[in-house]
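Hi support team,

I submitted a single chain yesterday and got back a structure, but I'm not sure I'm reading the token output correctly. Could someone confirm the output below corresponds to the sequence I sent? I've pasted both exactly as they appear in my results page.

Thanks,
R.
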Amino acid sequence: MAGDTNIHWPVFRSLASFRPGDLPGDLIAGLTLAAIAIPEQMATARLGGFSPQIGFFAFIAGSLGFAALGSNRFLSCGADSTITPIFAGGLVLMAASGSPDYQALAMALALQVGAILVIGSLFRLGWIANLLSTPVTSGFLAGISVHILVSQMPGVLGLPAPGGPMLDRIAVLARHLGEANLFTVAIGFGVLAVVAGSEAVSARIPGALIGLVVATAAVVWAGLESKGVKVVGAVPATLPAPSFPDLYPEQWARLLPLSFLIAIVVMVQTAATTRSFPSDPDQPADVDRDFLGAGAGSLLAGLFGAFPVNASPPRTGIVCETGGRSQLSGLFAAAIVLALLAFAATLLQHVPNAALGGVLLFVALRIIRIRQIVTIYRQ
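Hi R., thanks for writing in. Yes, this is the structure output for that exact sequence:
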């Protein structure tokens, strides 16, 4: 049966078992996924030094690429806060963050990562995901968590972002705490509280979206921009045409080590996600096919002006918990994001940066595995 499905469904495999009765569940799951993804993708793009719409491009590309060539029925692919700090740190060594060269390098990185994942799928390299031990992954995620916390605190406090090594940046922030903008602090930590409270009640509640809407409304109604609260600003309503980054051969070569690193992290996280939320509990997860889906997502992201994408365990869990039955839920969420970009981008210009920082603070606190670290320490 599985072999016949593979033959007749070389693309959009997760739709092979779709039935009309599944449609309501997929639509509800897609709507919930979009509500979770919109603020998360904006925040992740900001974490990498990109404008918010680039995060939307990444989500649309990741959703379409994985739906077309992936296997897992629930997996959500898009901009991810695990890999973004890693590749942003590598790219900033080659070009100034936010510059045209920086974006061109990010596009090239996405194309290389996508190609590596496709090759990994063809050569059935799913076993690579088993190589990293629990202590390594726990420490890796803890380091990313600290990086996110330190990088977002200036925006949440309303202070200029200090430069230099991480410990120096922490010291500078500590010395200038008294200069923090109280409105910005209230927004940042208020959104963090809303997201954390919503998550504690139910993962289905889009706490990040609720926090962003309330914070944006407060900025507009109270005129907080005039009181020092910084906002996202104008978001272009145009969609990018497919293009290839114009880089010198040596720039492509310099990206290769970073591309292999990001590809390995994506392989590990994709394998963990697809095994945690299997399409069929009675069948082994097709990790190699899901590498192909994630690779296709990164290739599309690179062609449409974005950066590498990754599987998201939290978003995948949301799809599974809210009744999603196929990748139609991810495609529906991508269509909502696309409509937002095309027809309602002006709604995003008053979103406060501190609100996005609050979302990322929650992400940072969620990915650090305190219990595992304590267990490892005791062992």
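A quick pointer for reading it: The first helix runs from residue 2 to 8. Let us know if anything else looks off.

Best,
Support desk
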